[in-house]
Amino acid sequence: MPGMTITEKILAKHSGKDRVTPGENVWVDVDVLMTHDVCGPGTIGIFHENFGRDAKVWDRDRVVIIPDHYIFTADEKCHRNVQILRDFVKEQNLRYYYDPAFVKATGMPSPYLDPANTSYKGVCHKALPEEGHVRPGEILLGTDSHTCTAGAFGQFATGVGNTDAAFTLGTGKTWLKVPATMKFIFHGEIPAYLTAKDLILAVIGKIGVDGATYRTMYFAGDGINSLTLEDRMTLTNMAIEAGGKNGICDVDEKTLQYVRKRSTRPQWEVYREDKDAQYHSVYEWDLATLKPMVAKPNSPDNTDTAENCREMKLDQAYIGSCTGGKITDMIFAASILKGNKVKIPTYIVPGSTEVHSDMRRLNLRGVPKDKNEKSIEEVLRDAGCILGPSGCAACLGGPKDTFGRLNEPINCISTTNRNFPGRMGHKKAGVFLASPLTVAASALTGYVTDPRDFVTQRIETGMAGVL
């Protein structure tokens, strides 16, 4: 009998079975359910409709609510959504809720004054691991397609719709079909001019936006081991851009150190692939031969090398989101921008308030700055970048007053994860997806630019994003 993959082992454990096989349907116990301000109100409404107005969630300690999408806007409907979450949290006495800290705002809410001293946490996919809600071997459901980000920590994490989320709110369970696993092996050590964004764009360019539909995307090899934990989150984050049910990475000491430091629960189980596990398909890359990549408008699989797109003129650059707004992403970008000035408007959006706090206290080596050094934030400001508060911001468009939103038919190069028409605002705007290195290099020239023009040595990130 063949062995099992990590995903299959997790689903077997949570369904009370010795083993499961791809295509099998199983009931599983869910460890954590997350929702936010976009889908939370709908989920809550369905929960009340089906379980009763006075019903209680299955476990108040396993529901996490993180407002993050439409926060810093004057739109009253967005403010209403946040209030619906607040009311539900109070009604259910939920333990884990991260409030944006404005009350019945009229007009544009004021952002936090100090990112290190606020209940607001920023983007849910970055805040979940930071606040200790992500552990190896668990099942995480979220009402957001990029919930698969948490697979970087060796867990089964996937996005669900409002109806499925409401059912889990009331029962703690869900019904899943076991996905087949596609294995993506990267050989060698990550070169200085590449980040995980280049790797995942290479994958999506190869298999297409539907190439992993309802399958597990398992990222393996010594090349993955050489990535920071945050860079692995970029890989698993964009599994959904290939249609994947979930993305997952092996658990190593980097993972365990982070989770031990932050987890809200003391125990978890690490699962590893069996040597004779069966895969739907296997793909391999040599990192030494991979070049910096971009995804041209209007699809993540419309990929090309950055050097082949040098003639493409840009109007704006954007560095942020759950995909490209982590502290290591900020160090990558700032290392290129240091001592230079951007030629196009360049918007910076920290992925979480912790990232924003670290941008103020760390230097470009990823360690606390001394009094004679500039912080990451100061380097970015000196380069002429426009910094905004943590949140999803323009990654998914939002109201017209959203920070960094594309309100005109312009070209933008961005570290975000999607570039469909209208994704970042105007339906005729062109969005080029790229790594923080490529975006920063392009911001300095006003054209799509290969970061190898600027990166001459490895960029050290120190302890940033490690613990």
Question: How would you portray this structure in words?
Answer:
The protein is an alpha/beta fold. It has 2 domains: 278 residues, Aconitase, domain 3 (2-Layer Sandwich); 161 residues, Aconitase, domain 3 (2-Layer Sandwich). Helix content is 28%, strand content 16%. The chain contains 14 helices and 18 strands. The protein has a 7-stranded mixed sheet, sandwiched between helices. Helix 2 links the parallel strand 2 and strand 3. It is globular and about 55 Å long. The model has no long low-confidence stretch (mean pLDDT 97).
When the domains are counted, the total is: 2
Which spans have pLDDT < 50 for at least 5 consecutive residues?
A: none
> Rough shape?
globular
Helix content: 25-40%
User: DSSP strand (E) fraction?
Assistant: 15-25%
Q: At the third CATH level, what is the topology name of the largest domain? A: Aconitase, domain 3
| SS summary, helix count | 14
> What is the annotated CATH architecture of the largest domain?
2-Layer Sandwich
> What is the oligomeric state here?
single chain
Describe the biggest sheet? 7 strands, mixed
Given this structure, which CATH class of the largest domain is correct? Alpha Beta
Mean pLDDT: 97
Report how far the terminal alpha carbons are from each other: 40 Å
Give me the count of strands.
18
Radius of gyration: 21 Å
Strands in their spatial order, largest beta sheet: 13-12-18-17-14-15-16
Superfamily at the CATH H level of the largest domain? Aconitase, domain 3
Class based on secondary structure composition and strand pairing: alpha/beta
